[in-house]
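Usage example:
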Amino acid sequence: MYDSQTTRHPDFTFLDQPEFKLKFATGADLASMRFYIGGMHCAKCVHRLEDLSVSVPGLLSLRIELGKDVAYVEIDPERACFSQVAEQIARLGYQPIPLEHVTTHEEAQKNEGRKELIRLAVAAACAGNIMTFSFATYFGAEEWALAFRWLSFLLYVPVVSYVAVPFYRGALQSLRQRQISIDLPMAVASLAGFLFSTFELAAGRTDVYFDSLSGFLFLILSARWIQRRMQRAYLRPQELHETLQLQRVRKIGPQSWEWTPVDTLEVGDRILVYANETLPADAQLLSSKAYFSLAWLSGEAKAKTFLKGAVIPAGARLLAGEAQLTTERPLEETGFGKILDEVRKFSLSQNRVVLRADRWAQWLLALVFAIGLVFLAVYWHISPQQAVQRSLALIILACPCAMAFGAPLALAVSLRRAQKAGLIIRNANVFEKANAVQTIFFDKTGTLTDTDLKYSGNPFIVPQVYQKIVLSLENESLHPIAFAFRQCFSQNTLPPIDNFQETPGIGVSGYVYGKYYELKKNTAASEEISCTLFEDQVALIKFTFEAQAKSDCSATLKNLRSKGYRTVLLSGDESGAVARLARELDFKEDDIISGASPAEKAMVVAKTPHSMMVGDGINDSLAMIQADVGLAVSGGMETALKTADVYLAEDGIHGVEALLSTSREAFSLLRQNLYISAIYNVLVGTLALMGYVNPFVAAILMPISSGFILFSTWLRGRS
Amino acid sequence: MNILYIMIPVSLMLGFGFLAGFIWSVQSGQLDDTETPACRILEDKDK
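Running the assembly step on the lines above writes:
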C-alpha cells in the first residue's frame, strides 16, 4: 500500500525528542542508535551509506553490518541529531527504521556467538592433533604408539571437560523434562567413551576412542554452529516486531504539533495525520473533509469520504492531504487494536519449530538405547567385557545425530536460499507447510494490483476540451480519481471555474465558459470504479478506472497453475471490479470470490486444507493467520511482518513461486539427509553389535556420515 | 626418530599458538561481522 503521489520522505524529527530517544538510543549520552536499513545489497550501498559520516557534520561514525541490514550510528549530540542522519539515509534511497534497543539480548547473543566460535576452535585444534597422532599409530609408528595414545588422552581432556559441556547441559535439561534429546547420546558417548578408553589405556590395552569421539564432536558442533549462525542472520525480522508507524502520532500542542508516543495519547487530544498514515485511535474529524481508506475493515480499496464531525475508526489510512482529528478512544480499545492484539498473541505462540525429523530422531534414539540395553543383558552371560564394549559402540556410533542435525541444517541452508530470492521468512516451519500447499489464495488490491488507480481508456482520444474541463473540476480534489486524472491528462492552461462545488461521495460540479459541468461517480455496486462527465445534465463521456495488475502476475500465475496449484482470487472488492482482473489473469469462474470481508476471507481460507494466503495488509491478516502459510507482498512490511510467515522483499508476486520451489528443494535435501543417516545407522549398528568395530573402524566411520551430510548440504546450498 | 622429541612439542606449540591467536581475534570482535569489511576495501577512497 503505497501512494506514489507522495514522494516526501518520512518525517524523522521524532527521533530527537527525549521520549523517543530513550526508546531507541543507547550509550551514556544517548548518542548511538541502530537502524534497520531495507534495500541494501552490495558494496556500493555500504560505501554510499558509510560515506555519510564524512559529509554529515557531527556524525561521528556510521557502520554497516551487511548480514543483518543494520547501520550503527553514533553522533555528537552537540552538533548533529538523529533525524538529520535518518533523513540523509532516506535521501540516498533507503528506508531507515530505527530499532529499539534490546541491549541485553543483543549483547548476550553476540557473546554467545563468540563463545561458540571459541569452543569450535578448541574442538578443531584438539581433534586435529588427536587425529594426527592416531593415524600415525594406525600406519605403523609402533614404537611411539603408547606415547601418542597418552598424548591423545591429554588432548581429549579439554574436549570432555570443556567442548562437550553444551551437550551435557542439553542432556540434563532434556532428562529433567523427561524427554529424549539428541544431546543425550552425545553426552553419553563423550563421557562413557572417555572413561572406557582411559580404563583401557591404563590397563595397557589399545582400544581407545579419543580420535573418533573428538572428531565426531567437532563435526556435530560445527554443524550446529553453521545452523545457528544462518538462523541468527536471516531470521532477524522478528526483531522488528513492533509496528513503528503505530508507535507515534503527531499531537497538536498550543503552538505546533509534536511527535508523541501513541500509548501516552489521551482521549480529547488533537492529532494531525498526513497522507498514507494510519490512524492510531478512533477519532473525530476536525478538518472539513478527508478521504480515508478502510481497507483493513472492509478489504476494499475504494476511498471513503468523511466530513467534519464524523468518527473515523482506528486503522483507517488517510489517502491524501492532511487531517486534524480529536481522539475518541485509545488504540487498545478499538477494533483495530484488538485485531493487532490477536495477531500479536498468535505470532508469539507460533514461533516454536517442531520438526518431524526431530521426532523421528527421538524415536530412533529410544530404539537404539533399547537395543543396546537388550543386547547388554543378553550378551552379559557370554562375555561381560564384550557386552559393554559392543553396546557402547552401538550407542556411540549409531546415534541418529546425523539425522538430528541433518534436518535443521537443510532448513538453515534453505533459509539462506530464500533470503537470496528476496523472501524474508519468520518461521522455519514454513517450508514443511509450503510443501503441502495445494490452494493459493490471492488478495486483489495491493497484492495482484498496484494500489493507485489508472484511467483504463486511451487518454489521447478524449477531446482536449474535456480534458481541460475535467482537470479544472478536479484541480483541488484529493480524491484518488483526481490523482488518476492528473496523471493521464496534462494540460498547460486550465479554464477558470465558477461556482465550484464538491459533494463528497458524489462528485464535483461547476460552471466553465457558462456551461454547467458535473463529474459524477457511478454508484452501481457491480460497476468498476468509474465516473461520468455531464454538460448541462447531458452525459458526455464516461471514464473508467482500474488498478493495474503488477507486471509479473500473469506469468507467475500461469507457472503456478501449470505446476498443479489451484489459484483463487479472494477479494473484498465488488464483483464488477474483480471480474475484469480475473479475466485478465485467467482465473477460473469457480475460483473467484468477491466482496468478502476480512472475517469471511479468513473463513474461506480456514475451510480449505493446505492453503496459502497471499495478501498485503491488515485486512488480510486474519486470513493469513488461518492459512497454513501466510505470505505478505512487498509494501505492507510493518503490519505484514507481524502476521505473515513469509514476507516478499521484492516487488511483485514472483516470490510465491520462489517460496514453493525453495520449499521443495528444502524437502528433497531433508529427505536426502535422512536417507543417508538411516542407512548409516542400520549398517553401523549391525556392525557394532557383531563386534566388528574396533577403534580404527570407528575413527573412519564416525566422521563419515556427519561429514558427508555437512558436505552434501553445503554443496546443494551453493548451487 | 629422536628428532620427534623436539618436533612433537613444536608442532603442538605451533597448533596451540594459532588457537590462542584465533581466540584473541574472536574476543576482540574481528569476526563479528564477516561480510561488510570485504566490501569496504573495494572502493578507493581517494579518487
